Amino acid sequence: AYAAQSGQVGFLTSQIQWSFSETKEEYFKEFSAVVMDEISYQWYLKNNMPVFAFSSQAQGFCAKLQTLGLDGLPDHLREHYASPENLVRYERALTYAKEHKLPISALVVAYLTNNALPSVAIIGATKLSQLDESMLGGEINLTFDEVDAMYNV
Questions:
Q1: Cβ neighbour number for residue 100 with a 10 Å cutoff
Q2: C-alpha 88: how far from its chain's center?
Q3: Which residues contact 59 (CB under 8 A, 6 or more apart)?
Q4: Which of 114, 122, 127, 148 has the lowest tally of Cβ within 10 angstroms?
Q5: Tens digits of per-residue pLDDT, 83-138?
Q6: Where do the DSSP E strands lie in 11-50?
Q7: pLDDT in tens, 38-82
Q8: Are 135 and 107 a contacting pair, CB within 8 Å?
Q9: Axis-axis angle for helices 84-99, 61-72 (nearest 10)
Q10: How far is it, in rounded angstroms, from Cα 70 to Cα 90?
């Protein structure tokens, strides 16, 4: 409102934590970070405010869950992301990924890049193969219905 009243350009985008796997803001307190929740999502959607989503792959939660299993996950990933809702989301995404021969890490990026809310997925990779898989997420085309079917629990 201030920008509009003073003839300036307002905010063009926002950077917050957002991923296919939900977490709680308390886990990002030390960074003073905002975490996407349903109220925030609806605000961003209503105001057509694009999001740069950091930790967009939830620190590799789905990929690590696929390779290590729930018991093999590092404690912080289990604590932050292994909610019953996220485990349902994971199973849905895994089924889709297998049916379409896609890496799950690419699919969780595609969840954001194909969302009704315009977004850019900020990823972190420690290996070139992880970067390649993540970049593939930008080439996957999902419908809004597919995005919702995987996510809504």
A1: 11
A2: 15
A3: 76, 77, 80, 81
A4: 127
A5: 999 999 999 999 999 999 999 999 999 999 999 999 999 999 999 999 999 999 99
A6: 14-17
A7: 999 999 999 999 999 999 999 999 999 999 999 999 999 999 999
A8: no
A9: 120
A10: 11
Amino acid (one-letter) located at 99: E
Q: What is the pTM for the complete model shown? A: 0.89
Q: What CA–CA distance (Å, rounded) separates 147 from 141?
A: 10
The one-letter amino acid code at 86 reads N
- State the Cα–Cα distance between residues 129 and 125, nearest whole angstrom: 8
The residue type at 23: T
Q: Is the pLDDT of residue 29 over 80?
A: no
Which tokens is 9 given? 């350009």
Tokens read off for 145: 């219905």
